[in-house]
Write a structure and sequence with these properties.
The structure holds two protein chains of two kinds. By secondary structure, chain A is of the alpha/beta class. Chain A has six helices and 13 strands. Chain A has a single domain, classed as Glutaconate Coenzyme A-transferase. In chain A, 20% of the residues lie in helices and 26% in strands. Chain A is globular. The two termini of chain A are 30 Å apart. Chain B is built from four helices and 13 strands. In chain B, the strands form two sheets. Chain B has a ten-stranded mixed sheet. The two termini of chain B are 15 Å apart. The chains are: A alpha/beta, B alpha/beta. At the A-B interface, helix 4, helix 5 and helix 6 of A face helix 2 and helix 3 of B.
Amino acid sequence: MPIDKRAGTAAEALADVADGATVFISGFGGAGFPNVLIRALRDRSPKQLTLVVNSATHRYSVTHELIEAGLVRKVVCTAARGHSKEASPFELQWMDGKIELECVPQGTFAERIRAGGAGIPAFYTPVGLGTVLAQGKEVRRFGDREYILEQAIKGDLALVRADIADRYGNLTFRYAQMNFGPVMATAAARVVVEVRAVLEEPIPYERVQLPGLYVDHVVTVGA
Amino acid sequence: MWPLNRLQIAWRAAQDIADGMVVNLGMGMPVAVADYLRPEADVFIHSENGVIGAGPLASPEHIDTDLVDAGSRRITLRPGAAIVDSSWSFAAIRGGHIDVAILGAFEVAANGDLANWDMRLPNKGPLVGGAMDLASCARAVWVIMDHVTRAGAPRLLEKCTLPLTAVRCVKRVYTDLAIVDITQAGMVVREMLEGLSETDLRQRTGAALTFAPDCRSLTAPPIELPAGDRP
């Protein structure tokens, strides 16, 4: 049977997401948020999710809808601060003790996911040494500098926004849309991508920014 | 002379950026540095989200929501730009490929410790972003900030009181009153506002200061803040 990763709808692609899943969500600064897939996941309503997402709240993302719907048990992120003086849905549930927070330096966040997708269980980094975010972590000296041990992150599901796909699941991204998408796609058991369009012809190899081997389902959502 | 305003501080820092440097500009005051680069300074502005070669803000008719910088601002690309994903972007930071990171700060200590990520705001979640990566791993870290808090308390201290971003990382601090280098021997004043005495500056500083033998006057051209902006 020919390879064809096109899915009919976001709901179909997310039909069997289980309670307790660890879910990666791409996006940074307004670029690359898979908002159609996030809403479809909210409608599917799996409970006790762990979200691995750069921002717990961002004005161009709808991640907060998963939180408001009470589906989230834990958030692993680099930015947990809402934009306004009033507490965000995340901040309210976090302060109530309903959501656990793991705040991670952004490069460590990206590298932990990269490691998860690259068969590396843990790695040493100098980032965070001597700060509260290093508390309880193993410290080891290499050469003249100390480093802390950080663990890889793997997920059950990645929701990624890209620009163009082909039926093989190869992807291209527009501008800074790439951000965490490629690395999250390497570290999740199931990868669902929303794209502006799927091309009939294969994407030329030198244009492919994420090879289709990482992608399970592609949903066309338009611009 | 009046203390520099925040755009004049950014202008002053921009004068020290050499041709060909790879520069990362933090959110807040530092991003304005890009507006005051000397015309001949052809540099790469690195943004943590993977944009290498960030250009000026996009005009309203050229806004593209997929082309943003670390502060979610809609930007343009400079000639020679490239875009990579976040793990590559931060590998470049940790790998020592960023020549200078210009960051805002709440406090800087005499040993170069930096506190710039957690103000301990009530009812707000933490936001660390890429601050720790940049502060720990850029080849040089320059800070631009006001010399004292709005309440008048010093921000240059013997020891930081707020949670640290990174230890022993800051090389140079640009403030509205002075330029201070962090050296093995502590804080050394390189430039100071004309009309300010050494005693005046010491009163506004919470750490011991040495004045460089060739300490010069800190000057910047007049730059008006946008209407409605705080002085």
